[in-house]
Structure formats: structure tokens, C-alpha cells
């Protein structure tokens, strides 16, 4: 009942021209694929061009961040309405790189998730523990807190649209993914907690794994009953690798 989802996070990569070429490669590499939702999240500067390059393909457009206000004196920020205007349907919120490197805190993440949902965008809320937190035995506590505060502004009917991505910080960009069993265990816990907070809506929330996902490792994650897909970083910058990840889920 939950459609699998593969999301590509291009992070701070690609000029407009590179982004257009990559988007075209992804769209043509996925021709004929059904039953998997696919979204690419280029940098803000390339959203319009990627939207044009994807035109007519089922691949959807997402952004990597947004501000919680709809407009105003917030220099450098981008609102949900601006993203929607460009054709975005998804937005990544609370990525660990923003939390760790840019000081984004749980409360701000929660406001952004609420703003995205109110702005007709599907939030992809990222949660995950650092290596230190993991070694200190705090993994579950950290993830539960991030997920709770991150979703506090959502009504139950909005929660059904939510996507949560479990991205352990130590697995991002390291080539050392979590095991499928570990991702499955955290996804199960997340769904239990989401059930306590949102009731039946939790059954519809898609939970992704992210962190060093490749065409070789994707199968291990999506074979877990509570893992509905992946948030892919590095491998999403290669159209062939990204398409191979999607194809592995479609099979
Ligand atoms: P990598 O796939 O490069 O490890 O990045 C994961 C990620 O941060 C996606 O948001």
C-alpha cells in the first residue's frame, strides 16, 4: 500500500547545464519503470531547468531545504510557495549536513516540515545519529527526539503524506552503509513511534534509508518490510547508477 520511493539528493553539486544533462539522463534511464516513485533534488539554482528537463517524465522535482515562513525579510531563504511555483512536489528537511554544519535545530526542522506540508510539498524529514551518539548508546533516543520535534506541527491527515529518511551520519558519504537489519530495526521503531503520535496515518508514512546506498546495496534495504526506499547522495549524481537503484526496487 506504500509506493516505494527513491530520492536523489544532489547536494551542492552541478551547474545548471550539468544538472540538465543529469536530469535528462535519469529521465531516459527510467523510461518504462512503473510502481516506484522517483524524485531528484538538485540545488535551488537548477530547479527550474531540471523541471523543464524532466517535463513529461514521471520523475518528480524536489528541493533540499526551505524556510518556514511563506515570505518576508529573510535574506537568502526560499519559501514553500516559491518551490511549489517551480514545480517541486518534495522537499528534504533537516538533513544532517544542515544540522551539523549549519546549526539547524530540531525546532527549526519542525517548523520547516509544517511549512512544507501546508505548502502542498511532501517533506522528507531526515533523522539519524552520529557515530559518537551511536557509541554512547543514544541512537534510539536521538532519532525519537528528532522525529518527534520534527513532526510536532503536523496534523494526522498531513502526516500520512510524510516521508522520513533514516540517515545515520556515520554512513553518509563514507562508503560504509548500515546493515539492512539495522536500517530495518530503526524503521520499525520509527513506525511504532509515528503510530503513537499519528494513529492509523503512520501506516502510510514512507520510511527511507540513506547513507552510502549503491545499486549493489539497495536490495538489502528494501527487502526490510518497513523500509520503503532510499535517499541517495553520491550515487544519484550518476544517471546510470541512480537508474540501476530504481530498477532494483522496481523488480
Ligand atoms: P551518500 O549516498 O553519498 O552517502 O549520501 C546520503 C545522503 O546524505 C542523502 O541525503
Summarize the SSE layout with pairings.
Elements: E1 5-9, H1 16-29, E2 37-41, H2 47-54, E3 60-63, H3 80-85, E4 90-93, H4 96-101, H5 106-118, E5 122-127, H6 131-135, H7 139-151, H8 156-159, E6 163-166, H9 180-198, E7 206-210, H10 218-222, E8 229-232, H11 239-250
Parallel strand pairs: 1-2, 1-8, 2-3, 3-4, 4-5, 5-6, 6-7, 7-8
The chain binds 1,3-dihydroxyacetonephosphate.
Give an account of the 3D structure.
This protein has eleven helices and eight strands. Helix 1 packs parallel to helix 2 and helix 1 (16-29) runs parallel beside helix 11 (239-250). Strands 1-2-3-4-5-6-7-8 form an eight-stranded parallel β-barrel, surrounded by five helices. The protein has 251 residues and is of the alpha/beta class. Helix 3 (80-85) links the parallel strand 3 and strand 4 (90-93). Helix content is 42%, strand content 15%. The relative contact order is 0.16. It has one domain (5-250): TIM Barrel. The protein binds 1,3-dihydroxyacetonephosphate (13P). 1,3-dihydroxyacetonephosphate binds next to strand 8. 1,3-dihydroxyacetonephosphate binds at residues 9, 95, 167, 172-173, 210-213, 231-235.
Q: CATH topology, anyone? A: TIM Barrel
How widely separated are the two ends? 16 Å
What are the distinct ligands in this entry? 1,3-dihydroxyacetonephosphate
CATH superfamily: Aldolase class I
Helical run tally: 11
Structure class: alpha/beta
User: What is the overall shape?
Assistant: globular
If classified by CATH, what would the architecture be? Alpha-Beta Barrel
Radius of gyration: 17 Å
Low-confidence stretches: none
Number of strands: 8
Beta percentage is 5-15%
For the record, the CATH class is Alpha Beta
Strand order of the largest sheet: 1-2-3-4-5-6-7-8
Helical coverage, percent range: 40-55%
Domain count: the total is: 1
Amino acid at each position: 500500500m506504500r509506493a516505494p520511493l527513491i530520492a536523489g539528493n544532489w547536494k551542492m553539486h552541478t551547474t545548471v547545464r550539468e544538472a540538465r544533462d543529469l536530469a535528462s539522463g535519469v529521465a531516459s534511464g527510467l523510461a518504462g519503470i512503473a510502481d516506484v516513485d522517483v524524485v531528484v533534488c538538485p540545488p535551488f539554482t537548477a530547479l527550474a531547468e531540471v523541471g523543464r528537463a524532466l517535463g513529461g517524465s514521471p520523475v518528480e522535482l524536489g528541493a533540499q531545504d526551505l524556510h518556514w515562513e511563506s515570505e518576508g525579510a529573510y535574506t537568502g531563504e526560499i519559501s514553500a510557495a516559491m518551490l511549489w511555483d517551480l514545480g517541486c512536489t518534495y522537499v528534504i528537511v533537516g538533513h544532517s549536513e544542515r544540522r551539523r554544519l549549519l546549526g539547524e535545530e530540531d525546532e527549526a526542522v519542525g517548523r520547516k516540515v509544517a511549512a512544507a506540508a501546508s505548502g502542498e510539498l511532501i517533506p522528507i524529514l531526515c533523522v539519524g545519529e552520529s557515530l559518537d551518539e551511536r557509541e554512547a548508546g543514544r541512537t534510539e533516543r536521538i532519532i525519537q527526539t528528532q522525529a518527534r520535534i520534527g513532526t510536532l506541527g503536523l496534523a494526522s491527515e498531513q502526516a500520512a503524506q510524510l516521508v522520513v529518511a533514516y540517515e545515520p551520519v556515520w554512513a553518509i558519504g563514507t562508503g560504509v552503509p548500515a546493515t539492512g537489519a539495522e536500517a530495518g530495526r530503526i524503521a520499525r521503531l520509527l513506525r511504532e513511534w509515528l503510530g503513537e503520535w499519528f494513529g492509523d496515518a503512520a501506516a502510510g508514512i514512507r520510511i527511507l534509508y540513506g547513507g552510502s546506498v549503491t545499486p549493489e546495496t539497495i536490495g538489502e534495504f528494501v527487502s526490510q518490510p518497513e523500509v520503503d526506499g532510499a535517499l541517495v547522495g553520491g550515487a544519484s549524481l550518476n544517471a546510470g547508477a541512480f537508474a540501476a537503484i530504481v530498477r532494483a526496487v522496481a523488480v
